[in-house]
Each structure stands twice: as C-alpha cells, then as structure tokens.
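Pipeline run #58 for the internal structure catalog. This entry was flagged by the ingest filter as a single-chain record with no existing model, so it goes straight to prediction. Upstream metadata was stripped on purpose; only the residue string is passed forward. Reviewer on rotation: M.T. Logging verbosity set to normal.
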Amino acid sequence: MESGSNSKITLKIDYREQRSGIVSEIEKISNRFNCEIMRLPIGDYRIGDKIIIERKTIADFLSSIKSGRIFQQAYRMANSPCFSILILEGEKPPPETTKMKRAAIQGVLLHLAVILNIPAIRSRDIKETAWLIKQIAEQYQSVQKPQNKFVILRSPYFKVNKQQRRKLQLLQNIPGIGIEKARALLKSLGSIEKITNADVNGLSEVHGIGQKLANNIYTIIHEPYL
C-alpha cells in the first residue's frame, strides 16, 4: 500500500466473504480500493501487507466462543506480523444464544484486547462494516512513514522481532506463567496452537505446570462459556 492520501489501497478479501455483500458496499462508498478476491490464510480482509481484519456476526462470534475456535483464530492473528482487528457485526444476538452470560462474552473480549492486542469494533450491519474498513484503511494510509508498524500500531509490549520471543511473551500474560513455565509449555507441546488445543491432562503433564495451573490455563483459553 503506497503512502499518500490519493493513492490506491490494496484490499485483499477472502473468497468466503463474497456472499456477505460487503465488497459491493465498499465499492459504492469508495473508488480508492483495488479489491482482490483470494483465499486468505488468516482473517477475512487484508489491507496491504499491514492490517488483518476478521469479521464475525454476533451469532458466529458467540458460536466460536463455545467451540473455542475464536482462540485458535486469535492466536494465529496475534502471531502474524500484521496489526489485527476484529469487527463484530449485528446489534442483537439470536434467541438461541442469549443464555450466554454477558460476563463470559466480556471476558473473551478482554482477553483479545489486553492479552493479544486485538481490538474489537462493533458494527450495526454490512454497510457500517464497509465504512469501518474504509476508515481503517484511510486512517492507516494517512500516517506518515508507516514502515515501523510496531511503533504506530502496536503497544511497546509487542516491539519484538523474534517469533520465539513473541510466543513466550504471549504465554507469560497468563496468570501463573513465568518465563520458565512458558518455555516448558513450548518445549513440550511445540506451538501456541497446540497449547490452545491441549486438554487439562495434556497441560498438567508439562514439567512445572501441575493440575491446578493446567485448569487455570485451560479455563483462560477456552472459557468462559455456558
């Protein structure tokens, strides 16, 4: 994505988003995008090579909390060199999901924002989602000298270049996990994704973790939900 207020903005769109109607809404409100439909490995939209946007309806978001899928997706986004944003679309959850406690949903949103540095932005409908994508792209493009993405878009906590160090720092945000336990988890299980997919027994078998801490880790990653 070139700098300058009038240059075209490359917007890569996952092919599964074609049916959402957002692409046509974006084209209605702006002619500054070069839209490319493709299969994206992470996220639904990618602005240049700098920003990943994951779009979820409220129903899909709640379903992904129950299944644990949201954490798998979020940790992949957090491990990407791009800045990641979650757009939650829709005003009210469907009736079959209203039994989920508000505190549970807020807990997940806090984990995404505080631990993984992935902010969530609310949107009423596809029109507002299209407008948000446009605003995100244009505000980013207006920043002077955006090459140092960590200074502009990341908190100082994420000013790291080595992938292994970033994984260790992510794990140390879990209460009870210090550098040694983080190293033990990665050495034993191999990756952040395998840690998030491990059950309590698998976690407790890691040296220095134990049953109580394993329960805490599992709860933080997979809960809260009903």
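catalog note: Residues 9-153 form a domain with the Rossmann fold fold (CATH 3.40.50.10130).
catalog note: The chain has two domains: 9-153, 161-222.
status: ready for reviewer M.T.
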